[in-house]
């Protein structure tokens, strides 16, 4: 099935891809890029055109197929199949050959360190989305229509543009510790020293170290929330805001009665997206503490079990727990969608 | 404590409140708002700013003194940037080559999923079909599938179809991994377009394709711009997908790989990490600034539900 | 067959793009395109046995080695490429260890992989079955140039899969010669002397602010804790001898046994003593938050005297530009044993595994296992090899030279890094975690039993 979708594209590209070594030029890469994009656009354009011109009887059906077909096909191959495979693997041993039933799950709940990991993940997913939304929304409202809005926005957006690993590097630098008799090189500890406190090992002292890692994720995700909310706020029709102002509504009332209903849809999207991103958080923990000192989360543990310690069964079981943790978010979205439909 | 009632339910504040009082309060909130905004902006900027200052300091000073003491411990150098930008060796080219690789990966890696997701999001929002909601829910729930577990099965398919280790393989992988989030985000915007607009077009005899191009696309420009940024950033900052699907040879590898390599086989080099981070962040910021003008008031998308 | 075909295409793409890259930077080292001619080239006397390939084949190699060390690696086979017509496409990336498993399973493994630990080689062999046994020419080289011990590290269940490549000697104590001289401290010859010196340095009256005799760092991202495993291994070997060491590495002697506990306690006498660590950085816990290689920096600042690190410290950027010699900025002595003149050392090295046996791949593999390669590479500096054909004079620093001699000395009791040989769940998992938890204040008993319980069944 996949061959059907990819075959023609890849065959069309093969001459570009496999040209002889001796006659290569600097533009070959760009040619490959242009060719790839052109082929993609042409294929999409042609199937859209054909579906549009198909006989009336099958037209609705053909159009539907063209619109969702490619995405569904790619997702089946690239994500649904691996997900199913993971679920199956989670019931097998580390060689993937012997069926062990639920023993990988049993292992999970009997290892104190893994239980700690599960608890940490829940803490992350409770705090990060709410805090990011609070800061992002507040900032979006505060700077709306302010002078230099683009610059103000990019200041908070900037962390988004840095990779997770880059962000971890930046914060490790912030948390850096030196003994109290030495000069501090991490800003946070310097502030503590200025205030007359002892410098702290922010990343080593459990359980607070988890919160210092969470700050990094909030720092990143606030930019996402802010950009989406800012667009949503600008989408609220002027008339409604003017009407509220005429009614004498104060800032808080405007927020409660105009802004909040106006951005409810975006709110669900942002909460959902950040929650899922948080469930999958991995680079931050891996880069900053390596999952040590009681800071590990499921995604990090899954990676280390699967690829470092070569225990794919255990790794898969941890991944299945991730799938289960996302269920409440899914159910919440279903309910929102139902409500939305009733309104419509 | 006389104001306790107002605090408990501020939105029910009596409408008879005098205009004067209301104005005074508004000024106050806006001043508080300004201060809060500044506090957030500063707090969000300081870590990056510290890194920025450090990126111009010599290695020894970075590891012994804080960046805020730059005036007491003066030392400014462009060496870190010079090293990051121009350093090349027998096993690696200079940064320009990797920059190009990143672009070749990122452009289709952003464009392809955007196009497919726009089409799918439209179908999920406006083409009624059996099982639509369930399929949509499954699609967005797929976001949680850890990338690392999806790599091997996909790699096997790619090697079977003979495109493993080429740029197109990286493009397809990024398309697949980007679809759940982009569909979910775009669906939200597209489904909020007032139904009357689309019904009107349908009554005029427009097909789905025509509605898509004439109504949906123009109306979702701000949404496309913002989702574009996120997909772009994701692909630009990605290391894992590019590494696994390009075969990782240094000739097709992206910027992220080069920067990761510069910090040495086993050790850490603050001075190169700092400068490298700013080289990698430059293009995303340019993209963000140039898309700014699309996030403007007056466009219909993201409006209140009718 | 299919696999080979795919690899070929991958390589030709890579080669094409590579050539593009070269043009872009205006670099003129395009041997790939030029050297089709099989005519004998000057300086090819050493390469006759590998044959000449007129079809200009590509061989892809990948490993964890990046940056300067990767450049030297590429240089070490430049002449080989010229003489044989083979083009080697090298890829270094720090995530190699997790990636090689994925690529092998996905069918896109490189032709040759340089495994940084024998444990990883065994994992890939056992879980994917894609690594091919070493060809006869390589086995012949191993028998000729390496000791039986080193051959054993690349052998799995009786089959030889990989030849050793480079090596490192662990257990060096780095110091500043000027510092020791000023303090009037002689190089200790026993562990007791080392501890006495440590005490003397800690209690000296004129120590600068923040001074402690030792500085150490365990931070290494996801691999944090590995420097501590080197400490423990050195002590296990020195306190208990090679037999206990072997039993411990294979799992028959538990971590919770008296012998291993003794080693931990010995290390703890230094690393957990707030009067002895962590020079120029902070308290005991700060060992965990310090990047391992950067933790040597306080020696130069005079706030620390001793740092425990392997021979490859010399190649770290933290020591860039430093004069490493007996009267230079930095030098090192071997961690002593319980008696003077002890000769037991630990060390580690890379292993060359191949995923196919194409003639070109075999030729490269054979070259990498030869004495020619070992001398070529060591001459370029920074590393050593346990290859018996290596001339110690080719080593670039006194420490490297000394390390080569240690490796080649028949009286040396050499033991491979035990954590590299343990199952990954311990050697790259609970042992690392155990170290950092122990430094962070967890009780020794709980740490040791946690490690024991993570040892995989069977």
Supply the key terms.
heterotrimer; B: 306 residues; mainly alpha; MetI-like fold; 2 domains; C: 458 residues; alpha/beta; D-Maltodextrin-Binding Protein, domain 2; six-stranded mixed β-sheet; 20 helices; globular; disordered N terminus
Please characterize this protein's 3D structure:
The complex is a heterotrimer of chains A (344), B (306) and C (458). By secondary structure, chain A is mainly alpha-helical. Chain A has helices spanning 2-17, 27-53, 56-89, 103-110, 112-142, 149-161, 164-175, 187-194, 208-235, 238-246, 251-262, 264-279, 283-288, 298-308, 312-325, 327-343. Chain A folds into two domains: 2-89, no CATH class; 111-343, MetI-like (MetI-like fold), CATH 1.10.3720. Chain A is globular, with a radius of gyration of 26 Å. Chain B is mainly alpha-helical and 306 residues long. Chain B is globular and about 75 Å long. Chain C has two domains: 45-167 and 347-410, D-Maltodextrin-Binding Protein, domain 2 (3-Layer(aba) Sandwich), CATH 3.40.190; 172-334 and 423-454, D-Maltodextrin-Binding Protein, domain 2. In chain C, strands 1, 2, 3, 6, 11 and 12 form a six-stranded mixed beta sheet that branches. A four-stranded mixed beta sheet of chain C has the order 8-9-7-10. A two-stranded antiparallel sheet of chain C has the order 4-5. In chain C, a hairpin with a 2-residue loop joins strand 4 and strand 5 (159-160). In chain C, helix 5 (96-106) packs parallel to helix 6 (118-128), helix 11 (226-250) packs antiparallel against helix 12 and helix 19 (424-439) packs antiparallel against helix 20 (444-454). Chain C is globular and about 70 Å long. The interface between B and C is large, with 47 and 60 residues.
Question: Topology, please?
Answer:
The complex is a heterotrimer of chains A (344), B (306) and C (458).
Chain A: H1 2-17, H2 27-53, H3 56-89, H4 103-110, H5 112-142, H6 149-161, H7 164-175, H8 187-194, H9 208-235, H10 238-246, H11 251-262, H12 264-279, H13 283-288, H14 298-308, H15 312-325, H16 327-343
Helix pairs in contact in A: 1-2, 2-3, 3-15, 4-15, 5-9, 5-12, 6-9, 9-12, 10-11, 12-16, 14-15
Chain B: H1 4-8, H2 19-54, H3 59-64, H4 79-86, H5 95-126, H6 132-141, H7 147-161, H8 167-191, H9 195-203, H10 208-219, H11 221-237, H12 240-245, H13 255-262, H14 270-291
Helix pairs in contact in B: 4-14, 5-8, 5-11, 5-13, 6-8, 8-11, 11-14, 13-14
Chain C: H1 2-25, H2 31-34, E1 58-63, H3 67-76, H4 78-84, E2 87-92, H5 96-106, E3 112-115, H6 118-128, H7 136-145, H8 148-153, E4 155-156, E5 159-160, E6 163-169, E7 172-175, H9 177-183, H10 191-203, E8 212-214, H11 226-250, H12 258-271, H13 286-289, H14 297-301, E9 304-309, E10 331-334, E11 344-354, H15 359-368, H16 371-379, H17 398-408, E12 413-416, H18 418-421, H19 424-439, H20 444-454
Parallel strand pairs in C: 1-2, 1-3, 8-9, 11-12
Antiparallel strand pairs in C: 3-11, 4-5, 6-11, 7-9, 7-10
Helix pairs in contact in C: 5-6, 11-12, 19-20
């Amino acid at each position: 099935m996949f061959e059907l979708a990819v075959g023609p594209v890849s065959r069309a590209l093969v001459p570009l891809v496999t040209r002889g070594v001796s006659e290569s030029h600097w533009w070959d890469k760009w040619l490959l890029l242009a060719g790839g994009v052109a082929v993609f656009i042409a294929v999409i354009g042609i199937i859209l055109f054909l579906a549009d011109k198909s006989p009336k009887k099958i037209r609705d059906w053909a159009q539907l197929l063209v619109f969702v077909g490619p995405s569904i096909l790619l997702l089946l191959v690239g994500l649904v199949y691996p997900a199913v495979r993971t679920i199956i693997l989670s019931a097998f041993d580390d060689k993937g050959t012997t069926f062990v039933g639920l023993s990988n799950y049993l292992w999970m709940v009997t290892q104190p360190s893994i239980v700690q990991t599960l608890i940490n993940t829940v803490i992350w997913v409770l705090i990060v989305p709410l805090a990011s939304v609070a800061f992002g929304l507040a900032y979006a409202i505060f700077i709306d229509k302010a002078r230099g809005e683009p610059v103000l926005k990019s200041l908070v957006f900037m962390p988004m543009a840095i990779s997770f690993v880059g962000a971890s590097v930046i914060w490790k630098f912030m948390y850096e510790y030196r003994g109290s008799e030495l000069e501090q090189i991490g800003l946070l500890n310097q502030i503590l020293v200025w205030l007359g406190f002892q410098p702290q090992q922010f990343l080593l002292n459990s359980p607070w170290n988890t919160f210092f890692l969470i700050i990094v994720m909030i720092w990143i995700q606030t930019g996402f929330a802010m950009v989406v909310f800012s667009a949503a706020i600008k989408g609220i029709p002027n008339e409604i805001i003017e009407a509220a102002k005429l009614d004498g509504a104060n800032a808080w009332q405007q927020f409660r009665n105009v802004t909040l209903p106006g951005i409810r849809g975006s709110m669900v999207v942002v909460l959902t997206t950040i929650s899922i991103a948080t469930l999958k958080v991995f680079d931050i923990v891996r880069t900053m503490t390596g999952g040590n000192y009681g800071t590990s989360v499921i995604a990090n543990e899954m990676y280390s079990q699967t690829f470092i310690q070569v225990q794919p069964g255990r790794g898969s079981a941890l991944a299945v727990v991730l799938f289960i943790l996302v269920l409440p978010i899914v159910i919440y979205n279903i309910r929102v969608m139902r409500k939305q439909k009733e309104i419509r | 404590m006389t104001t306790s009632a107002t605090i408990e339910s501020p939105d029910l504040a009596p409408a008879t409140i005098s205009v004067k009082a209301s104005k005074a309060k508004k000024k106050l909130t806006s001043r508080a708002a300004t201060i809060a905004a500044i506090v957030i902006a500063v707090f969000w900027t300081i870590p990056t700013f510290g890194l920025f200052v450090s990126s111009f300091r010599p290695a020894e000073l970075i590891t012994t003194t804080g960046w805020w003491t730059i005036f007491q411990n003066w030392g400014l150098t462009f060496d870190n940037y010079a090293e990051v930008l121009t350093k090349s060796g027998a096993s690696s080219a200079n940064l320009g080559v990797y920059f190009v690789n990143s672009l070749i990966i990122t452009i289709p890696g952003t464009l392809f999923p955007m196009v497919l997701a726009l089409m799918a999001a439209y179908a999920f929002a406006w083409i009624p079909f059996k099982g639509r909601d369930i399929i949509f829910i499954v699609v967005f729930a797929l976001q949680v599938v850890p990338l690392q577990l999806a790599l091997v099965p996909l790699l096997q398919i790619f090697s079977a179809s003979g495109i493993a280790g080429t740029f197109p393989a990286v493009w397809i992988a990024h398309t697949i991994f980007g679809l759940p989030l982009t569909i979910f985000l775009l669906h939200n915007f597209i489904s909020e377009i007032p139904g009357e607009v689309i019904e009107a077009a349908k009554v005029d005899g427009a097909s789905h394709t025509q509605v898509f191009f004439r109504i949906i696309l123009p109306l979702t420009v701000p949404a496309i711009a913002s989702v574009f940024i996120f997909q772009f950033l994701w692909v630009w900052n990605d290391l894992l997908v590019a590494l696994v699907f390009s075969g990782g040879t240094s000739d097709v590898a992206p910027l992220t790989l080069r920067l990761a390599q510069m910090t040495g086989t086993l050790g850490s080099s603050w001075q190169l990490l700092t400068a490298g981070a700013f080289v990698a962040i430059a293009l995303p910021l340019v993209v963000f600034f140039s898309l700014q003008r699309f996030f403007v008031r007056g466009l219909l998308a993201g409006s209140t539900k009718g | 067959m299919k696999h080979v075909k795919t690899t070929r295409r991958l390589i030709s793409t890579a080669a094409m793009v590579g050539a593009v890259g070269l043009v872009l930077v205006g670099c003129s080292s395009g041997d790939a395109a030029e050297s089709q001619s099989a005519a004998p080239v000057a300086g090819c006397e050493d390469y006759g046995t590998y044959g000449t390939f007129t079809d200009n084949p590509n061989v892809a190699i990948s490993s964890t080695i990046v940056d300067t060390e990767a450049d030297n690696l590429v240089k070490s086979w430049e002449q080989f490429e010229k003489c044989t017509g083979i083009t080697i496409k090298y890829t270094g990336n720090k995530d190699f260890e997790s990636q090689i498993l994925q690529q092998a399973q996905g069918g896109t493994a490189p032709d040759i992989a340089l495994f940084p630990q024998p444990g990883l080689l065994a994992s890939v062999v056992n879980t994917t079955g894609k690594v091919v046994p070493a060809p006869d020419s390589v086995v012949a080289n191993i028998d000729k140039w390496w000791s039986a011990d080193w051959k054993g590290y690349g052998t799995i269940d009786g089959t030889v899969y990989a030849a050793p490549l480079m090596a490192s000697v662990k257990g060096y104590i780095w110091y500043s010669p000027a510092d020791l001289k000023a303090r009037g401290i002689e190089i200790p010859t026993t562990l007791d002397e080392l501890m006495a010196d440590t005490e003397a340095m800690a209690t000296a009256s004129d120590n600068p602010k923040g001074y402690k005799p030792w500085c150490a760092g365990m931070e290494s991202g996801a691999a944090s804790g590995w420097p501590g495993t080197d400490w423990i291994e050195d002590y296990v070997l020195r306190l208990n001898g090679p037999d206990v060491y072997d039993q411990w590495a294979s799992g028959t002697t538990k971590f919770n046994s008296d012998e291993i506990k003794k080693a931990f306690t010995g290390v703890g006498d230094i690393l957990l003593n707030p009067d002895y660590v962590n020079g120029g950085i902070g308290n005991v816990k700060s060992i965990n938050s310090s990047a391992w290689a950067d933790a040597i920096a306080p020696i130069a600042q005079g706030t620390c005297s001793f740092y425990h690190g392997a021979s490859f410290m010399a190649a770290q950027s933290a020591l860039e530009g430093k004069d490493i010699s007996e009267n230079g900025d930095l030098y090192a002595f071997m961690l002593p044993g319980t008696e003077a003149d002890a000769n037991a050392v630990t060390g580690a090295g890379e292993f060359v595994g191949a995923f196919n046996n194409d003639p070109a791949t075999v030729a490269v593999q054979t070259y990498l296992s030869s004495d020619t390669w070992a001398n070529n590479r060591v001459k370029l500096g920074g590393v050593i090899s346990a290859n018996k054909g290596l001339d110690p004079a080719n080593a670039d620093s006194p420490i490297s030279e000394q390390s080569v001699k240690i490796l080649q000395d028949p009286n040396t009791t050499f033991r491979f890094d035990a954590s590299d040989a343990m199952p990954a769940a311990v050697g790259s998992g609970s042992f690392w975690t155990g170290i950092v938890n122990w430094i962070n204040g967890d009780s020794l008993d709980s740490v040791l039993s946690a490690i024991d319980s993570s040892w995989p069944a069977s």
